[in-house]
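Researcher: Please predict.
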Amino acid sequence: MNEPWRERPRAMLEIDRPERTIDPDVLRAPGGFAWWYAEVSDPAGNGVVLIWSFGLPFLPGYQAAALAGEAPAARQRPSLNVAAYERGEPVCYVLREFDADAASWEAGSDGETWRFGASRLQTRRPAKGPVQLEAELDLPIAGGGRLQATFRLEGPAGRWAGPVRGVEGAGAVAGMAADDAPGHRWTPVCGAAFATARVRCGDLRLAVSGRAYHDRNAAPWPLADLGIDRWLWGRAALPDRDRVFYALWPETEDADAAPLVLGYELHADGRLEAVADLTMVTHGPHRTRWRMPSAHGFSLRGEDGAPFLELRARHAVDDGPFYLRRLCDATVDSRPVGHGTFESIVPRRIDLALHRPLVRMRVGRNDGGDSFWLPLFEGSKFDRLRRLLRLPNSTTEAA
């Protein structure tokens, strides 16, 4: 692999075009990562999130090996993550890692196909017409049974409606990536979308229909090498569009350094618009039980003071030592406009030796190396204790 790009300045984030695919060199890069993300949710707090990836930074041992210069290529660590929420409560969670030869990715001009064990995902991007994502998932669950799910998303093909205004300066977002040299690329795949999802796992039966979102992130470097001290992402589903924001705090000795804040609008006709020069106010900043920085909500305004988005946290659906996810109410100028999500990541806290045994309790593997406690965290929450104790249940699907 030709690697002169490895010495280029590393922006915290660059913006890519939906018609491109992720550079295959990323999957060959030691310590690199590529993940694809899709979610569907409704105003009642029901939702399903899918993350399929190669080199997911959250996998135990991966980032530590990368920082030590010993990481395998990203394609050697494939994984598939499914999380389901019902009325604001997490009811099912699976993060399953696969052997490299049990996963694949094929990309063409009209779509992409992924395989993870018995699970298959496919996107179609025709020359004319909407982007479609179809997923048929079948995953083993620790202690017995399987998770079986379907996910169908349709949305207008994304296209940037104009130039992306960047912010100049060291560590700042460089704006639209102008060449094919790998960087940390974020890409909204489509405009405002709609999806349906069904999840069956043990005693759980969940069906969700509603507004949906699909994007991807990729970089040929470890997440911890991108100069990000803290990563905050939020998304709100408005009636006719999505509003998305990033707030990225750079690694610096200045404790009062302001974050880089960028906003995006994803329209129902596929137009993607970038909004720079945003300012953000944090409401009720606090620390979680894991000492992770969090807040009760955020307000974002444009340079002229016009309101862009306000998120008010409602439900905590993932609360860990390096990653947080909250379901939110969304308002604009104090007017309710929809529902949303925000997540926070502190890269330097990922894969610390202190936390790694806890992370292993939430990650299933196909090589027999599962934690004894995995059944308490994987699968439907309604039968975890039964599976931990290996008690029979006639409703459990055959493994």
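Model: The CA atoms of residues 146 and 349 lie 31 Å apart.
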